[in-house]
Amino acid sequence: MTMTSTAIFGTPAHRVHNPSVMYVRDVMAALGVGMQKAYQIIRQINAELNAEGYITINGRVSEARFYEKIYTGKGGPGPRMGKLAKLGE
Question: Whole-prediction pTM value?
Answer without folding.
Answer: 0.62
